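Progress against Task 2.4 (sequence-to-structure conversion) is shown through the following example record, which the project officer requested during the mid-term review.
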Amino acid sequence: AGAVTADLDLRQLDLRGVSVESGVSRLAVRLGQPVARIPVDLRISTGFIDIYLPRAAACEIRVDGVSLDNFRQEGLVREGGVWRTGDAGRADRYVVNIRSTGARIRLHRE
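Structure tokens generated for the chain above:
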């Protein structure tokens, strides 16, 4: 996959999963309130990732690779290599897997 600059506004869709694979990227993914367990798989070689979630959305985030993030500042807690919201055990949540050789990742709770 090549270089990508994308703003994926998926808030109005009935998602079952999201998968994005690209090279050097600047990627924004905007997600609505989940109604089930929704896997989100983001693979970029290097770049910037912005994930927008509703404040009420539960999530867990796993990062494989080197990254700079703001997860703690957004209220997530790290447990066993996974960042989670306090209610990440809910059935309706996002399960985000990010693979990158180097990325700046920002979570935005709206």
